[in-house]
Amino acid sequence: xxxxxxxxxxxxxxxxxxxxxxxxxxxxxxxxxxxxxxxxxxxxxxxxxxxxxxxxxxxxxxxxxxxxxxxxxxxxxxxxxxxxxxxxxxxxxxxxxxxxxxxxxxxxxxxxxxxxxxxxxxxxxxxxxxxxxxxxxxxxxxxxxxxxxxxxxxxxxxxxxxxxxxxxxxxxxxxxxxxxxxxxxxxxxxxxxxxxxxxxxxxxxxxxxxxxxxxxxxxxxxxxxxxxxxxxxxxxxxxxxxxxxxxxxxxxxxxxxxxxxxxxxxxxxxxxxxxxxxxxxxxxxxxxxxxxxxxxxxxxxxxxxxxxxxxxxxxxxxxxxxxxxxxxxxxxxxxxxxxxxxxxxxxxxxxxxxxxxxxxxxxxxxxxxxxxxxxxxxxxxxxxxxx
Length: 387
Ligand SMILES: C=C(O[C@@H]1C=C(C(=O)O)C=C[C@H]1O)C(=O)O
Hints:
By secondary structure, the protein is of the alpha/beta class. It folds into 4 domains: 3-91, Up-down Bundle (Chorismate Mutase Domain, subunit A); 96-181 and 270-276, D-Maltodextrin-Binding Protein, domain 2 (3-Layer(aba) Sandwich), CATH 3.40.190; 184-249, D-Maltodextrin-Binding Protein, domain 2 (3-Layer(aba) Sandwich), CATH 3.40.190.10; 289-369, 2-Layer Sandwich (Alpha-Beta Plaits), CATH 3.30.70. It contains 13 helices and 15 strands. Strands 1, 2, 3, 4, 5 and 11 form a 6-stranded mixed sheet that branches. The chain has a 5-stranded mixed sheet with strand order 8-7-9-6-10. The two termini are 43 Å apart. The ligand C=C(O[C@@H]1C=C(C(=O)O)C=C[C@H]1O)C(=O)O binds at residues 28, 31, 43-44, 47-48, 51, 77, 80-81, 84.
């Protein structure tokens, strides 16, 4: 067979894989409907383990590597669990979702908003904003139903500006979504061989690529309001030797080419985004929930330890605890806390009452579906027999 015919065959196989993936997602939605009727939990790790084991046995018979299959199916199962969780909360997708986001099309916030809408079988009606505060205002003023904001990154940590804004708004966090952020260095087509003297990027992208950038000599690094701004600047400028930090899909949108890839200081760089809305949401019991709050303890020895003891007494699982200086009050600390709990659970309501009595300030930012899907692990059949 010639190369072209072989490639046509590959394309045919890929089409069938895609159709099978779409069918699997449809069946997962039917499973969600069934679970909603029976009040069953979305996640069933025993079922996942037996499924993975069977797939590995069958796969190795077909000559496929067990490690490859596990990685592949972990992604497929994560998609299935998150699709079911989204359905449990929002039901069947209806039309479009209006979401305010930082930057124009191609910014990381826009990509995350796109992923959020896709997961809910909705089309995205995105509204570009210049600042995080504009995203908030768009939702507060009723111009959009939702706003999306990056809240923390696996490399650069919490995005304090966003926490600060959340402290002063009456909006609620109603969802979270994770985006793999693979920064690339993008230049205009034809400029691939030009020496770079200036790199533009969003401050978060610059922080996440600090190691790579620190090794470049005679290069100016300049901040832009969003990654989309940085890419647009490079795309529209005639000046050679300028580059932008951005994503692969953003680069494609602006017709830019990558001259360096995977630039984040840590592999697997991910950003967690939150979705904010005017009304709080209700997380069904079948879906694991995360509750986020900000609190300031009294400035006295052991105050934080006392707050943590309350959480332990109520058996609350702490996902995140971070302290930040309180803006305007030097040397006083504000704590960001995330707990694995449903807001309406009596366990949390009791703990909150006790915390209110012993903190100077406490604000629940929202309770929403926990989108971290910890991969189920199984021992591959050959490894088992070889052990
Ligand atoms: C589809 C189901 O829901 C979840 C997703 C699974 C999958 O995609 O195979 C398996 C178990 C559950 O964690 C199910 O329960 O069968």
